[in-house]
Amino acid sequence: MTSYPFYGSIRNAVIPNFRFWGNWGIWPVINPFPSESGRSRQNIDGNHLIDFREAYLPESVEEFGLELNRSKNLFGSGISARLEHFVSSSPGLPLGGPPFFITLYKEEKIMSDLKQEKRNGKGINRRTFMKVSGMATGAALFGGFHFVRKSSAAEGPIKLGFPVPLTGPYGTEARDQVAGAELAVAQINASGGVLGRKVELLVRDDKLKADEAARQVKILIENDGIHLAAGALSAANQLAANEQCKLHGIPWMAVSVGNEITKLPDNSVYTYDEALDTHAISQASGAWVAKNWGKKWYFLVADYAFGWQMTEGLRRIGKELDFVEVGETKHPVGASDYSSYMSRILAAKPDVLFLDNFGKDTANSVKQAASFGLKKKMHIYVPAMSMSARLSGGDEDFDGVVGGCAFYWELDRPSAKEFVQAFRKMHNRLPIDYAGYAYSGVKELLSGVNRAGSLDPLALATAIEGRTYDNYKGSQWWRPCDHNSQQDWFIIRSKKAKAQYDVFDIIDTVSGSKEKLMRPCAELGLDANKPIRVGLIKR
């Protein structure tokens, strides 16, 4: 943890780890240990600012654990738990800093500390004084405490937050993510739930905006009291949701493609990624294309993190294979007119045109590439080919276009057939690849808690790390150093539809075994010989 000395007046808070102690409104702010805790200073409202030498920020804000909403049953809805007149001596921590939330500990723990000190013949030390005086003051004000364990009473559902972009260009994929998560939750509930409790899925629309993703996850944590979270469908939204979960100590399962989520400083002990990252997809794609089609490449790139990272990864594998880059053009996300780019691409005469985009962008760019005759002069490869893009693009324009995917419903593997059958029974249609990511990711979180026997994040991490599993597509493995799932990648070719979802043939499989598609742990800032424990909040 990073230590930041600061001054502050805390009201209505009993603080975890007893790093702070507080004024409950009826107890005068005093400095009982002037020789240890330093000087008092006069606040504008008459309260004293005490020098808390043991404070830790910003991590300690999240160390408070249970937010105010979860504590209403303890003290009543009228209780305030905000830090007032926050004055920091460290740069970047402004006046009126972040809220401090209530967390309570069992009375027996505090009283046992006091009894132990008496048995040892020692006076009451500073820390125990703070614990007991804080308890006594709170009890005087509220008529006694109701002490609970930090894990909370085993009642009510296990809540899993699920923010995805239901509105926006990736709405089709997001709805399939929800459908996959619903199936996982239904199956877990049918088999007894999690820790004997039913699971409740709380879906929220993040509108494909990172700030909205952060806002929705914060609400899910602070107002809805979620225990776990999964979702997102863009690199930026993954990171925004993950950051909120890290701050509050909530396990987060990403179920879409992104590079930074598995890398420091974004990765943590709370962070998991069920999907192959952008780097892995690019390595599988580049190796297959170079072997089968040629090494003169042109990149048409969606101008955001996914597109940049895909292109960077293709260049990386391309250099190993002696490729030649003949051009790159970036386009805005959601572009409808690609005509100005097509003449440039034709003039460059590549062997292969990579469409480093997704969803509607893929559909629109394929349509216009076909209309300009590019399909007759070069191969077109889509590193992440989505079912929604293919369905909206149509038979003629997509015919013969090749790309990659994490899952296709005709995959001839036992677990794939079981997943497709169960999905079809529940939703009366076939799943696409993002349904599989969500299904497997949610199932891993929930089954992991059951194996751990606890909602404790460290116990969950231990239950998941190094696990080999097969939920829907064949063998996968959780790499301990970064909590990323090792798995195969499938090469698919578009064809004329025989039925609504019968639009691809699987023409090859790129194995993900032996971490061959993954970045080395050291490149991510992690130790290959140790499971990730970065960011663990001490309770």
Mean pLDDT over all positions: 78
N- to C-terminal distance: 13 Å
Output the number of helix runs: 17
Return the structural class: alpha/beta
Superfamily at the CATH H level of the largest domain? Response regulator
| Named CATH topology of the largest domain | Rossmann fold
General shape: globular
Query: Unreliable stretches, pLDDT < 50, 5 or more residues?
Result: 1-153
Radius of gyration: 27 Å
Q: Please give the share of residues in helix.
A: 25-40%
Number of separate strands: 19
Using the 3D structure, state the CATH architecture of the largest domain: 3-Layer(aba) Sandwich
Q: Please describe the biggest sheet, giving its number of strands, its sense, and whether it closes into a barrel.
A: 7 strands, mixed
Estimated share of beta-strand residues: 15-25%
How would you characterize this protein structure?
- The protein is an alpha/beta fold and 539 residues long.
- It folds into 3 domains: 137 residues, no CATH class; 195 residues, Rossmann fold; 127 residues, Response regulator (Rossmann fold), CATH 3.40.50.2300.
- The protein contains 17 helices and 19 strands.
- The strands form 4 sheets. It has a 7-stranded mixed sheet, with helices on both faces. A 5-stranded parallel sheet has the order 6-5-7-8-9, with helices on both faces. A 4-stranded antiparallel sheet has the order 2-3-1-4, with no helix packed on it.
- α6 runs parallel beside α16.
- The relative contact order is 0.10.
